[in-house]
Amino acid sequence: MRLILVRHAKAENREKWVGEDDMKRPLTKKGVKQAKKIAKYIAKKYPDVDAIVSSLALRACDTAKFIAKKQSHSTFFLNPNINPEEGLQGFLGHKDEIEEDWQTLVVVGHEPSISEFVRFICAKGTLNLYVGKGCVVELERESENDWLLVGLHNF
Question: Is 98's pLDDT higher than 80?
Fold first, then answer.
């Protein structure tokens, strides 16, 4: 089983969105280019993604849509459990939803949830990791409760 965690591509500055709904904050032009590079990388390395899951935030949805365009046979769905305000508990709740027959799952979400999740499942809290915008974190399951960090790529 492979779990590919993607932090959404570069979005408009949060400071510009004061008083606006942060969930509607869009990707910048650079973010769109970044999302396309991420999609191309994932399609080349993992051409048969089983499912793509995204938070409901526009910046994550748009990043995930670029990935989905390159994955003709994958299931795409949104999950509020990985929205920005959900944190580590949202990711942990989502972990149990991974279907046994899926070999490769892509999850598009936010910081600090992604790094906290990786720290929790790979290093039992001992790994110091920060995942920047447009970063792809690749994990492989070694056994029932053991995951291995096999890749970290910034775009």
Answer: no
Tell me the backbone φ, ψ of residue 83, rounded to 5 degrees. Answer: -65, 160
Who's near 53: CB < 8 A, 6+ residues apart? 64, 77, 78, 79, 82, 94, 105, 106, 107, 108
> CA–CA separation, 137 vs 113, rounded Å?
12
Q: Which residues pair with 124 in a beta bridge?
A: none
The pair of structure tokens assigned to 3 is: 């779990």
51-54/104-109 β-pairing: parallel
Q: What angle do CA 91, 105, 128 make, to 5 degrees?
A: 50
DSSP assigned state of 57? S
Give pLDDT tens digits for 100-112: 678 899 999 999 9
